[in-house]
Amino acid sequence: MLHDPQLPLQKSVFQALGGTPILIAGQAIPVFEFAPSGAIPPCILITQQTVKPQGNLAGCKTWECSLLLDIITSFQGKNQVSSRLANQIAEVILSRLENQRLTLEGGFDMSPAGLELSTMLTDNVSQDTVDVHRYLRFAFTVEQHQQTS
Predict the structure, then answer these.
(1) Phi-psi region of 87 (alpha: psi -120 to 50; beta: other; left: phi over 0)
(2) DSSP three-state, residue 115
(3) How many CB atoms neighbour CB 12 within 10 A?
(4) Could you give the 3-state DSSP secondary structure of residue 87?
(5) C-alpha dihedral, 26 to 69 to 20 to 32, nearest 10°
(6) Burial (Cβ within 10 Å: 0-12, 13-18, ≥19) of residue 129
(7) Is pLDDT of 1 > 90?
(8) Nearest to residue 102, comparing CAs of 92, 114, 91, 90?
(9) What tens digit of pLDDT does each residue of 115-146 get?
(10) Which three-class secondary structure state does DSSP give residue 82?
């Protein structure tokens, strides 16, 4: 039995988002924890995962968890910038995660994932390139029921 829900949680989110690729206009959107060198947007990063123990209750460990998904799209030329692609990707992510109870390994169970925050940010990467980030923060409770003798 595992003692830390972080890895099973991350694996489950990777599976939900990348097991069946997110396709937008026929293009598969890759999912990373850390974007590899040379990765070209659009892509999704699973970042800022938090796991806060809530204590033990009669054979049950509980954690309040969250993670931030960073949807990155990129545009050449400031006149080409749009939030449309990031919003389309976000729509698919929301359909796969929001109010869903993902399957976790290691004897962990989770509450349905709730959207806690959604925001947009533009980043002038260079004079010619602008990245548009759409952030989605999800929160949920993870429990691990333990055998009592």
Answers:
(1) alpha
(2) strand
(3) 21
(4) helix
(5) 90
(6) middle
(7) no
(8) 114
(9) 999 999 988 877 788 899 999 999 999 999 87
(10) coil
Indicate the residue type of 114.
Answer: G
Is this prediction's pTM over 0.85? yes
Q: Are the beta carbons of 80 and 97 closer than 8 angstroms?
A: no
Ramachandran angles phi, psi of 106, nearest 5° = 75, 20
DSSP labels, 13-76: HHIIIIIS-EEETTEEE-EESSPPTT--SSEEEEEEEEEEEEEEETTEEEEEEEEEEEEEEEEE
d(CA 48, CA 33): 10
The token pair that represents 103 in the structure block: 């399957």
CATH topology of domain 6-74+85-145: STM4215-like (3.30.2000)
For the chain, give every domain's residue range. Answer: 6-74+85-145
